[in-house]
Amino acid sequence: MESNKKTCRKTEEKHGFADDMEFEILTWLPAKSLMRFRCVSKAWNSLIRHNLNFIKLHNVRSQARPPASRLLFEIQTCYRAIESTSNLPTQIEGLSLQLARPCHYFISTEITICSNHCNGLVCLYSHKDTQSYLYNITTGEIKALPFSLRLPEGWTPSFFLGFDPATERYKLLHVVRCKKGTRIKILTLGTHSWRRLVCEKQYPFTSYFHTCTFLNGVLYWNELHKPITYFDFTEEMFGTLPFPQECHLNKMQSALWGKLAINCGFAEKCNLVYDEVNKVFVEYNTNPDLENTKVALLAAENVDEKTYENIVLATGSLNSASTSLVFPDRFRLIHVSSFVENIIPLTFIE
């Protein structure tokens, strides 16, 4: 008996939880299930929401979970979304998208998404109280960012959110265009001091966050007829990638593969993939036998009147990286990224 008590105490010291088996099982469960299980007991709620060892292990296992690739879609819906019908061929298989709960839609005149997606996190801006927030899409937690911005009335900030794998800290890049040029500041979340970044040259990048893709600690974006620009959140440096002319980012395939993918010319399919080790683009030859086109559908019964003409966040799972998606006219795809079921509490931004 005394030996068992010592074992339990060691387990609690290690994990902050009394049962190693329960701890292990819970780390493998989907985040959606964990959010429901928080009400089982105070111990489970504390484990799931506040035990950093558990949270970190769950996030690692969530990202490595095969076989489907989880995607996060930012979609704008049309007013006649339920009434309209698609003219797409009926033989194309449908992919059902699930609304991200509980805050699955945002009324653009009140709340605006003002950053790219990063590991299941996104920044929001409230026009009513002119406050910026960080939103965890998995848990539904929203927390005010510890700063205020002086913006002209009606303006929305443009943030670029990234994760530094070297320090395991989230960082926020703020790009401001003004008459005197472009000002760039960076903030490590959890601190309160913005740092000014001085670029040796003017890089051809846009300040619009929906044009970018975050992958493995690096943010990539490009404008038509201009080189791909990147920002490394570890080095905190900008750079450009050499690539053939008339190319543009393929955000859908980049999100599926976890690698930078681009289309060249007027091709609809991915032509090149970036080799991060050798710093070169290599050809990607898709196996025609694996091609599988799906229609991205948001179930009509899950769409209420409040979602019309507003931004909707939804997730979907794909089993094949060669799958291509098409969206009916009733949906307009704003942004797509890989989706990480991130259950980390947002207390780190205090």
Q: Tell me the distance between the termini.
A: 43 Å
| Count of strand segments | 23
Helix-and-strand structural type: alpha+beta
The Rg value, from CA coordinates, equals 22 Å
Q: How many helical elements?
A: 6
Mean pLDDT: 77
- The parts where pLDDT drops under 50 for at least 5 residues are 1-18, 81-85
Helix percent reads 10-25%
Shape: globular
Main sheet makeup: 7 strands, mixed
* Structural domain count: 2
Provide the β-strand percentage band. 35-45%
The helix-strand sequence is HHHHHEEEEEEEEEEEEEEEEHEEEEEEE
Brief account:
This protein has 350 residues and is of the alpha+beta class. It is 16% helix and 35% strand.
Provide a descriptive summary of the structure in words:
The protein has 350 residues and is an alpha+beta fold. It has two domains: 62 residues, no CATH class; 280 residues, no CATH class. Helices cover 16% and strands 35% of the residues. The strands form five sheets. Strands 1, 2, 3, 20, 21, 22 and 23 form a seven-stranded mixed sheet that branches. Strands 4-5-6-7 form a four-stranded antiparallel sheet, with no helix packed on it. A hairpin with a 6-residue loop joins strand 13 and strand 14. The chain starts with a helix and ends in a 12-residue tail after the last strand. The N terminus is likely disordered.
Which key phrases capture this entry?
35% strand, single chain, 350 residues, disordered N terminus, seven-stranded mixed sheet, alpha+beta
